[in-house]
Amino acid sequence: MGKLDGKVAIVTGASRGIGKAVAIGFAREGALVAIVARTVEQLKSGLAGTILETADEVKTAGGKALAIRTNILVEDEVQAMVEKVLNEWGTIDILVNNSAVAAPGPFSETTTKRWELVIGVNLLGTFLCTKAVLPTMMKQRSGSIINTSSGAADGRIRSVTGAAYGTAKAAVEHFSCSLAAELGPYNIAVNCYKPAQGVATEGYVFNLPPDFDKSRLVGPEKMVKAAIFLAQQDASGVTGCVARDEELIQWHGLS
Ligand SMILES: NC(=O)c1ccc[n+]([C@@H]2O[C@H](COP(=O)([O-])OP(=O)(O)OC[C@H]3O[C@@H](n4cnc5c(N)ncnc54)[C@H](OP(=O)(O)O)[C@@H]3O)[C@@H](O)[C@H]2O)c1
């Protein structure tokens, strides 16, 4: 028996990286997974990963997936994505807000457009996807919302991901706790997790400066383990928690 048997999950940013690994991990635990992001064919930039490839990998592993091309900055697209999931599978139990864009480079060179994009994808996208699933979760009085932060949210040294990214992630952490308080009476868990160490994802590695030491980067396995744990929560379990993957694994004895 899988830990998420029959649960319906939406994972944003699942065309590559941690989102892709979480989507596959959820499917292995029996969840039906909506694979959400924008890329449907290989990008000329060389940045690998499409939602169709992720969906194919889920299906090859015997899972059920629905690839839904969505720009999470566009409210109508987010609403349409949620309606598609509801039409296909009838409910939504889990939302993983994982999509992200960073702002590498110095703040003094960050354009207004880049600032808006980074705050937008990390924060507005999280807001729009959360708002879109809430009517369903509030009506059924259960659900788990998992937001994704970064060490950049509390780091006070210069980071390769840039000031806008850390600013957005700090806001995502605050948002998670505020929302947990509001949604407790509806039995909806809201948590926020982040990697303890840099994860060698397609997007992260693509944006690193050439001289960056990649030897300490890890795979997404701990994030997947933590996400599967958080996905099983409702408000009677763990909620309002902001934690690193390794902390969740130790605190809750996840093996
Ligand atoms: N990797 C790390 O070391 C690390 C460290 C700390 C925190 N994190 C966090 O972990 C999460 C995953 O990181 P990652 O390294 O796996 O990222 P990644 O490889 O760069 O992937 C980012 C994902 O976000 C999606 N995305 C970007 N803009 C979007 C938009 N407008 N609409 C929909 N989807 C959009 C991308 O898909 P499309 O381009 O196809 O739309 C892609 O699937 C992020 O929240 C990140 O901040 C990662």
Describe the structure.
- 43% of the residues lie in helices and 15% in strands.
- It is an alpha/beta fold.
- It has a single domain (8-251), classed as 3-Layer(aba) Sandwich (Rossmann fold), CATH 3.40.50.720.
- Strands 3-2-1-4-5-6-7 form a seven-stranded parallel sheet, sandwiched between helices.
- Helix 1 runs parallel beside helix 2 (51-60) and helix 7 packs across helix 8 (245-251).
- The longest helix has 29 residues, at 112-140.
- It is globular.
- The protein starts with 7 loop residues before the first strand and ends with a helix.
- The relative contact order is 0.15.
- The mean pLDDT is 96.
- The protein binds NADP nicotinamide-adenine-dinucleotide phosphate (NAP).
- NADP nicotinamide-adenine-dinucleotide phosphate (NAP) binds next to helix 1 and helix 6.
Structure, briefly:
The protein has 255 residues and is of the alpha/beta class. It is built from 8 helices and 7 strands, in the order βαβαβαβαβαβααβα.
Looking at the overall shape, the CATH architecture is 3-Layer(aba) Sandwich
CATH superfamily caption: NAD(P)-binding Rossmann-like Domain
Q: What is the makeup of the main sheet?
A: 7 strands, parallel
Report the helical percentage. 40-55%
Query: What radius of gyration results from the CA coordinates?
Result: 17 Å
Low-confidence stretches: none
Strand order of the largest sheet: 3-2-1-4-5-6-7
Query: How many distinct folded domains?
Result: 1
The best one-word shape is: globular
| Amino- and carboxy-terminal Cα gap | 16 Å
Structure class = alpha/beta
β content, as a range?
5-15%
Number of helices: 8
> Which distinct ligands sit in these coordinates?
NADP nicotinamide-adenine-dinucleotide phosphate
The succession of helices and strands, N to C, reads EHEHEHEHEHEHHEH
